Amino acid sequence: MNIRIEPMKHSQLETVAALLDDSKLPSEDVEEHWQNFLVAFNGGQLVGAVGLEFYNTDGFVRSFVVAPSLRNNGLGKRLYDAAVSYARSKSVARLGLLTNTAEKFFAREGFQKIERERMPEFIKQTKEFTTFCPSSAVVMVKNLS
After folding, report:
1. pLDDT tens sequence across 98-143
2. Contacts of 130 (CB under 8 A, 6+ apart)
3. CA dist., res. 135 & res. 108, Å (int)
4. Is the pTM of this model over 0.85?
5. How many CA atoms lie within 13 A of 7 on its CB side?
6. I want to staple 50 with a disulfide (CB 3.0 to 4.6 A). Which of 17, 54, 64, 76 is the partner?
7. Nearest CA to 42 among 78, 86, 84, 11?
8. What's the CATH superfamily of 3-143?
């Protein structure tokens, strides 16, 4: 595997949206946030992506996806580590997310599940929360400091 992770280019929107759609993840608003996406390539093929939204010193992890054929081999961890490094470069102190499928992965990375009643305001502002994620989605947060 020859993996490289880099900032997303606007020309990669359709490819990232297709990867998200194939994994049953929201892709409708990727264009609003593409400047804060990282993409992973295996050779010349786009095989993963993760986006961030920034709210002062908080960051929201969204659209985290790895191609099915490359799951469970460390690519998700590499993509996650790159996203955390990027968030830290933007002075983010806390990350939050919503997930239906990756709770165990994020728990291994130090995220804590929280009750919806205790959800931070910055997560409530996201389209992921207001529009795209079902009420069954798990809310998780992690302090980076």
Report:
1. 898 889 999 999 999 998 788 877 777 777 776 666 567 888 999 9
2. 124
3. 23
4. yes
5. 8
6. 64
7. 78
8. Gcn5-related N-acetyltransferase (GNAT) (3.40.630.30)
